[in-house]
Structure formats: structure tokens, C-alpha cells
Amino acid sequence: MPGITTAAGGRVFTALGHIAHHKREEQWLNTLLARNGYNGTLLWSRKLPDGYLVHRSAFIATDDFFYMIENDGCLRLDPETGKEIDRISIPEIEGEWKYIALQDGVLYVLAGIVKDSSETTIVRSKHSHWSWGELSPGYYQAKVPWGFGTTLAAYDIKGKKVLWRHTEEEEVDSRALVIGDGKIFFYCPGEYTGCIDASTGKVKWRNNDSKVIRLIEEPGRGLKSTPGFRTTCYCLYTPEAIYYQAQTRLNVVAISSKDGTFLWTRRKTTNNPNMLYTDGKLFVGIGPDGSTLMLEPLTGDTVADLGFAKRSCARLTATPDSFFCRGMPEGLTRYDRNAKKVLFNGALRPACNDGVIAANGLIYIGPWLCDCNLSLMGTSGLCSAGNFKVEDEDPVSQRLEVCEESSSVAPFPEIIKEDWPTYRGDNSRSSCSAAIIPADPKSLWTCRPPVSFLPSAPTSAGELVFLCGDDGKVRAIDGKTGSLKWSFTTAGSVKQPPTVWKGRAYVGSSDGAVYCLEAATGRLLWRFRAAPVERRIMAYDRLCSTWPVASGVLVQEGVAYAAAGIIDYDGTYVYALDAETGTPKWSNMTSGHLNEELRKGVSAQGILTIAGDRLWMPGGNIISPACYSLKDGECLTRSVGNGSPRANRGEEIGVLGGDHLVFGGRLQYSAVRNYVNPGMFTLAKIGGDGIGKAMHMGTGKIPPAWSSEIIVMANGPRSLPMCVDSASLINHLDKAKPADLRRPWYAGTIERKWTVKEIQDSDAVAFVVARNAVITALEQQRPRSLSSNWTLAGLNPETGKVMWSKRLPSAVLPGGLLVDRHGRIIVVHEDGSVSCFG
Fold this sequence. Notes:
By secondary structure, this protein is mainly beta. Helix content is 3%, strand content 41%. The chain has a domain at 1-176: Lipocalin (Beta Barrel), CATH 2.40.128. The longest helix has 9 residues, at 726-734.
């Protein structure tokens, strides 16, 4: 941070700044990114000078050129390729350029002799948030060390000549430099305001009214919200008035654009409202608790309170039909200017310094730096839904493709209790194996793909090991030798491994379809399109259906269950299919819009499990977990509240003890190595139409593993694996008082069976509970090194003592462990390679 976006010509340019609060952000320090505005594809990137302040008017995007300040000049880049076309230098201007603006072919420049401070700052916070006490040093100085100059100039781009040059005795603050109606309005802090003719550079007026200066500079007292970024622009031009309101200052001040005379002032209620002018009115969040007010621009009188407040730094922005800002308590607030209604979307939130940006016929949201409870992370491009309606979708009956001889399946070993035929071993997602592990496992083989890919977790049945990947392939590997037996390619990345049942392997792909393959050969038997229509978007640099089947496929009693979708407002589609034929038994096509006005409901944001005659699915941050009737697919979860985040958004879910759910963990659409925001896990008793009594189990992205006797978990990154009695944990919840359940540490008061103390400073990324051992994969930081050692360890299930450990060749995929029917341990690595011990 900070981060600033410009857009033009179907492209979006994001400049990422000089502060990295977490390790994951460091690779993006001082970086300029250019993307295709219509599909998000990265066009090019460029490193900015060390410590470059992006939070200013340093960039201009046009259809033909991208302009950016570089020291004492301006580069012009090809917006499609990022190649330098030329450099604009003005010999008549001395010093570093602080500000640029372009209007009618004229480039306006502010320059200063004093160089801006270069303050690349690396914090390495271990917290999921960031602190206002951890910005770069310049933000804490009385005068920020950026953006001040004394020389203004105008340069004819086409004629390549200086039109005029003007110097002020006092420093001009670039944060309060605005252009309009052929004039340039400037402010010299503590001294005076002024106006220059943009065509000649001649001063039209200066005004040193001490009252105006005092009101602009008066320090904020008793203001709510965060202090904000003091590099934020704080001046707004309108035809008849100029307005000032700076971060950490007390007042909104209006002066006449004709001569700078004082018009009116009003006290702020929060540190960081920003102003908008549209339809002849001024809009600014200075009402009670920062509520957005519509004001008469020449008097400051309140016309209306719009009933919503802008949260923190994310800017208030507008389109002809909407106002947008960061929501309360979290997410995106949209004010419908026609209906005069406030609507919430808790799935995502505007970027801190940009807000929602409307350009190229779309709106752009993100990126942001903190780990708010949201369902989508990163940068998103949104368009109008147009005429798309559920009732116009292709009929479910027309989406099944059946191949020849699909009813004839090649012989395949019958599933036995020692197999691992579905994600985490069983439909309860327990990560528990009935197999016996050798006393001292040896390395048997390693399978390395020709090209690395991001794999799924593995499954295993008979003699085959199955896994999928973001390359769209389904793979079957010989469990004895590690050789590839067959592969099948879908048209999208595959997040979950195949489920094997009666000689068939079931896969959900990001292309929006469920595939049924012959487990022995990979031959396609049938394909069911779960997406309502064929529509593709770019999702994290991969082509993906708007409705991917990222839930995997759960098969029980001859029925295959799957869910399609990313986010509720685009629609969520849940199906029960005949596992042999693919024929739909029921479908639920409405649970994404339980509140039709808000278009909020259940998001398909995790895997599936079954308990209490219901299908359960992590549903994002609004409703999670969601449950559906196994009989007819009715969504039994109803209320979305006001659309704000309120649920544990993690992608994992499983059944403990038959009538309790364990859910949470990593956000499904996030990096595999999400160091800072690992999520949390919740234990809940199953209730009548959802979950009942619930308690916080612990933090972390790695789901626990359990049997009927024990449950093994790691309470967050770098914590020691521990074990508790399964029945005791359930009893701990059942006997808890309401006050206990409100305490995050309550679960930690249960007596532990054991804690592994022999592996200090390790990070467990996977667990399996087998009959005679607990298996874990661990990352251990090498001393005085940025790299890690990876270890496979076997723990005594009674004591937690390390019985054996084996060195692993590379990083292990979180959750990338299983034990097959022969007691062989399969380890999936982050690069798609697979190791086997037995």
C-alpha cells in the first residue's frame, strides 16, 4: 500500500506502493500492473523506483499512452505492452516532478527542488490486519515529505513546447491542486489559496484570508474512524466553489471559485470523508457517525441524509445510478440513487485508496490489504447482469451428455474400509484411515510431472491414486510404482480430487460440469453441465465458468451431489444426480438469492458433507454452513440478514460424532499459502434447520483429523499439533454456558490428551489419523535461511511421541496426505509431484 488505479482504453492500471505489511505483499512493492479491463488478463508489469509514492496524481491513462512521473520528467509508455515510447523533459523546469494532469492536449506539471522522501517499508506483521502505527515514517511527520513544489508549468504534448511557467514563493501542496473551467486552483498551506489561468499561467487571484487558512488547517478533535492516509487529495473543484477537507483536519471549507472568498464551513464527524459533486449537489460524509449528506453547494445546508456511511479510507465514488463505498460492518455498500435505498454486499469490498472505480463499462473493485471477513479476495471486474434470469436458463434435463456404452464399466476393485475413495477419506471428511502404517516407512517412489501444476488433495481406491490440478487434468497413478496410468482433461481447473464409487470416478471442474469417468481407464461415461449457461470469466489467471463445480462430488447411496457457483449474487446451483446415469434427481437453483432484492444467500464456497438427512456446504461469509434437504434439495437455511458478513467463510466441513459439524479453515478462493489469514474452525451441534450450539475450536487453515476416539489439530500457524478426546470435546460444547461460547479461548480450556513438543517451530500442513499412527507433514524453517525443510512424521496416537520422521523433497500441499489400503502414505507436493512411503 497505498495503491492507485487508473483506467482508459479498455485497460486498467494499478500502481502498488511502498509499504508491505505482510510477507505475502513484498513481491508487489513498488510495482505497476496493467490488465485487460474486460477479462483481467495481465498485460505487463513494471517495477517503480524504490520508495515511489503512488498515492498522488503521478499517472495518467489514455487510449494511446500511459504517462507516469519519473524523477524530473515524465515517461510515456505503450499502454498495451508497457514499452517506453519517449520521455517528456522540460529544461525550463528545475527539480522533481510532483504532480501531472492532462487536459485538451496540455500536460500540467508541479515541480519542486526538494526531493520527495523514499520510504520503502517492510513490516512483516504476524497479524491478519495492519496497524496505523506501521506506515512509513513520513506519514507521522507534521508535514508529509511528499508532493510539495513551487513551479507550475504547461506543456503542449503535440507541439512539444512549454506554453508557460509560473513560480510561487511558497510551496504548493499537490494534494489540493485542481483544474476546472480553464483555471488551476492551488493552495499553499498556512499561507493562501490561489488561481491561475490555465492557458496563460497568469495569476487570476490569491486570497490569504486568515479565517479560511485557519479553518482548513484546524486539527481534528473528537473525530471518529481511522486517521487515514495523509497523502490523500483533499480539494474538490466545482464551477462555483472550491472545497477543502484534509485527513485529520476538523472542517469542510468552501470558498468561491471566482475570488477565493469564504462561503461556508461545517465540522466533520469522522477523519476521512471524501467529497463528491454531482447533479448540482455536494455529497460528503459529515452527518451523525459519518452518514453521507447531500448539501447545497453554495450554502452548505443539508438537503438530505442518505442514510449510509463510508467506512475508513475506501473512497466514496459514484455512477449515474449509484453511490459506492466500503460498508458497515464490512463489504460493499451501494446506494441506489433512483430507488433511494441502501444495499449491502458482504462478498467483497472496495480498495482502500481507490474505492469502486467505474470505467470501460464495468466497475472495478480491489485489491485491498487486510484480511476482512470477505468471500472474494483480490481484484474483481463486475458488469450488469442485463437480461439474465433464472427462468431463461437452459432446462436441467437438457444438460446431460451420455457417452456410448456408459452403463458398461471396466472391472475395478470393490471399495473397502481401508480405501480413501473421496476427499479426506470418507463423506464425514474425517481424514481417518482404517489401514495400518508400517513401523518404519521407506521411500517407495516419487512421481514428478513434466510441467508443474497446482494439485488437488489426493484420493485412492484399489491400486490407484487419483489427483487433479489447476491444469484441468484428472490423473490416475499406479500406487505401487508411481507411474501414470491415465489422465483426462476437462476445460477448467479442478480443485477437488475424484470421488470413486462402483468403478466410477466423479469430478467437478471449473468449466462448470460434473464428469463421470471410468475409474480403471479414464474413459468418459457422462458429463452433466451444472452451470446454468455456458459463460466464462477469468478467475485468478485461469479461464473458468461463472459457475464452477469447486465443491467436488459427494456420492452416497447411489446419488452424486455437487454445487456450482462462485458467489451468491451470480447464482448458486446445487444438484442431486443419479450416480450411475447422471440423470438429475433434484436441483436447487434459488439458494444464491434467498433475498432477491439484495441478491444474497448461499455461495458455493467449499466441499460437501452429509449429516442428519441433510446436505451441508460452506456457503461463504453470509450463510455458512448451508443445508439442503436430501429428499428434494430445499434450502433449509433462510435468513441473510442485511447482507453483511457474519459467518465462518472457510471451505472445509465434516461430521464429528454423527450430530456435530466441524467447519471453517481457508477461504476457498485464496492463495494456498495464505500466511496471514489462516481462518478458524468451529464445532457446532446440528440443529433443526441449520447449526445450533457452536464454539470456536481454534485458528488455522488446516482442518483437524479425527476418529471416534481422538481429534488431532494445530491451533494456527507454527503451533504444536495437539490431540484431545473426541467425546470430551463434544461434551465440552454441550455443557458450555452461553457466556462460555462467546469466549474465543473457551475451547482451549479442555484437557489435552497430548501436545507434540519434539517439533518446535514447525508448521503442520496436513494430518491423517490411522489405526496405529497419526501422520503429519511439517514445514521447518532452516536457520539463517529463507528456505524450509519438509518432513513427514509418524506420531504415537496415545502419547504424541514422534515414532519416525522422513525428509521430504519439497513443499507439501496443505491437506495433501492420504493412507491407501496397503498402508502406503501418499504425499502430494505443491508443484504437483507425488511421493510414496510404505
